[in-house]
Structures are given as C-alpha cells and as structure tokens.
Amino acid sequence: MINENAGSVRVRVPASTANLGPGFDTLGMSLSLYIWVEMRRAERTTVHFAGEGFEGIPADKRNLIYKVAQLVFEEAGESVPELEIGMRSDIPLTRGLGSSASAIIAGMAAANALIGSPLSKERLFDLATGLERHPDNVGASLFGGIIAAAWDGERADYVRIEPPQALKVLVLIPEFELATSEARAVLPQQLSIQDAVYNISRSSLLTAALFSGRLDLLASAMRDRLHQPYRAALVPGMEKILEQASDHGALGAALSGAGPTLLAFVDRNGGRHGELETFMQSVMREHGIEARALWLEPDLEGAVCETGSRSDLFPELIKGEISS
Ligand SMILES: Nc1ncnc2c1ncn2[C@@H]1O[C@H](COP(=O)(O)OP(=O)(O)O)[C@@H](O)[C@H]1O
Ligand SMILES: N[C@@H](CCOP(=O)(O)O)C(=O)O
User: Fold this and answer.
1) Selecting from 3.40.50.300, 3.30.70.890, 3.30.300.30, 3.30.450.40, what CATH number does the domain 167-296 have?
2) Phi–psi pair at 144, nearest 5 degrees
3) First-residue to last-residue Cα distance in the chain
4) Which atom of ligand 2 is the closest one to the Cα of 100?
5) Does residue 2 register a pLDDT over 60?
6) Residue limits of the GHMP kinase N-terminal domain (predicted)?
C-alpha cells in the first residue's frame, strides 16, 4: 500500500492532439483529458496504477515514467535511484491522444519538482522532444494551449498560441489501438514539391488562422497531403469523415496525431453539435467500428503541480486495492 507520508509531489498533465491536419510533427494542442502522477523517494521502487487503462504497462523500473525521471535526475546532477510512483489516467493508450507524451511530461515534471525544480520548462521540453522525436505532443502537454514548434535534433523552438475562445473539440475514439510507430511506418520517404507546397501553405494558414481567431478558415487550412492519405487505410471511415465533417457543422477536422482518433473543431456558440457526433459515429459503424465520442476543451495550463490528499486521487491505493 502507498504510504500516507509527506514529501511527495503530484502533477497533472493534459492529453494532446498533434498535427491538426497539415502541421505534421509541428502543431499540437492540449486537451482536457488528464494523467496524474505522484512521486516520492522510496527504499524500493514500486509503481502503482489506480483506475483502469494500464494493461500491459510495466510496474517496475522498465516503466516509462521511472525511466524519464532518472533522465531528469541525471541531467540535474542528482541521484534518486528508488521511487514510489502512483498514477491515474483518463487518456486512452495508443489512440492518437498523446498518452506517451503525457506520461513523459508527467514523469519529467514530477521528478523535477521532487528535487526542487532545477530544470527550466524549456530544458524539459528539449529532453522530452529528444525522447518522443517530435515536439508537437510533448509541447502541448507541457505548456498547454496550441504549440507551434520546430526541433533541430537538440533544441525545440516554439510559440504558444492561446486557443480561440470559441473553439470546442469533439474526438471520436475508435475501440482499436494503433501504435504511433505503426502509423509512422506507412509514411513515404519522399514527397512531391506540389504536396510539400500544399502542406506548407495550409500549415502556415492554419497557424495564422488560430492566432488571429479566423475560425472560418479552418476547414480549408486543416487539409493535408503529407500523412493523412497514407494513414487512411489504417483508419476505416476516416476519409469520409474528413471530407464531410464540415457539411455537418464542423469548423474543420483531422486525424488526431497518428490516429486512430478523429478530431473535429466546432464553434461552441454554434449549433449542430449533435448532428456532427451522430454523423461521425454512423460512418464508423458503417465500417463495423465502435467508437467513443468525447466533447473536450482545449487545456490552457499544461503540466501543473497539484496539492491535495492522496485519498482524493488514489482511493483504491489507500484502501490497499493496488495493482503494481
Ligand atoms: N502512463 C504510462 N506509463 C508508462 N507508459 C506509458 C504510459 N502511457 C503511455 N505509455 C506508453 O506509450 C505507448 C503509447 O504510445 P503511442 O503508441 O505513441 O500512442 P499514443 O501516444 O498516441 O497514445 C504505450 O503503449 C506505452 O508503452
Ligand atoms: N506527429 C506525430 C504525432 C503522433 O501523435 P500520437 O498522439 O499518435 O502519439 C505523428 O503524426 O506521427
């Protein structure tokens, strides 16, 4: 059982949606689904999972959160070899909602807080991007809001954009998993100049549109020729949903990250939200796929340290019904 001792830190980190269509490996937005991680020094390393969704995740020193914590300690010149780690998450794994990025940021932010926060957020961003290999998800999970970022292999430069107030998000999460590595393996090694220009122009337009609140431009600015067409075969129903979402009230639609989740932006002050959800669900069902629809908000805070009693977050752990 987890001890009710002082000396622990707790962080809350949001999920993210990457690419937003054309901004492959560069644009990301954080979403109001969260992972919570508690961490403290211990005599022996243990990893506890509260709630569901952690099937297959190692509960020992092979755990991603333990590993990234050690990276932070090493970078800061500290040694904390044994840790007690507890986690709870609402973010589904391998669905294109950045669970690995959220876990990396949560592990890093908790470890940094545990040793008095010697590393800046910018340094954590570089370390996290080095692990994830693309800055879109980790940037959004760390800073919140919308992130436009470029990674040169060592350093990630970024600008945070405050999401337009009217923006609301519908995600449709299919029941099947799709590992990001698998969805990257289907991408071509080369693109034509026409497709490159197509994507650069839309990604630039999308960034400017989000910055200036031009929601009327999202439908055309979110089109993509770099990754979505190649991933379509992995996500039945995707093509039809992306093509027709605007006819059912969406401001724009995209594959979320590497998929299989699909994302639509809507105007929170507009109507037809129910129509859009029904349309997206029905297309998935035409392909025999059950999917969960969630209405989310852009998260504005990114990774935050939280206070509060352990029993709020981990009632199962406190009662002793642990899995580790
Ligand atoms: N809380 C967590 N603790 C440890 N590993 C995690 C956690 N969350 C995600 N992961 C790792 O990340 C993998 C999913 O990453 P990925 O395939 O990139 O999908 P996505 O990031 O879209 O959910 C999981 O299979 C698991 O290995
Ligand atoms: N830019 C990456 C984003 C992967 O996001 P995930 O949420 O699916 O891990 C890509 O498109 O491969």
Assistant:
1) 3.30.70.890
2) 75, 170
3) 10
4) 9
5) no
6) 63-145
H/E segment holding residue 47: strand 46-50
The per-residue b/e assignment along 239-278, b for 16 or more CB within 10 angstroms, e otherwise, is ebbbeebbebbbbbbbbbbbbbbbbbbbbeeeeebeebbe
d(CA 262, CA 150): 24
**Domain limits, the chain:** 9-162+301-319, 167-296
Site to probe by mutation for ligand 1, drawn from 93, 173, 231, 235 as the one with most ligand atoms within 8 Å of Cβ, is 93
For the entire predicted model, the pTM comes to 0.95
How many whole angstroms from 258 Cα to the centroid of ligand 2?
4
> 49: which 2 tokens?
């999972």
What digits encode the pLDDT tens for the residues 161-220? 999 999 999 999 999 999 999 999 999 999 999 999 999 999 999 999 999 999 999 999
Query: CB-based contacts of 316: which residues, under 8 Å, 6+ apart?
Result: 50, 51, 322
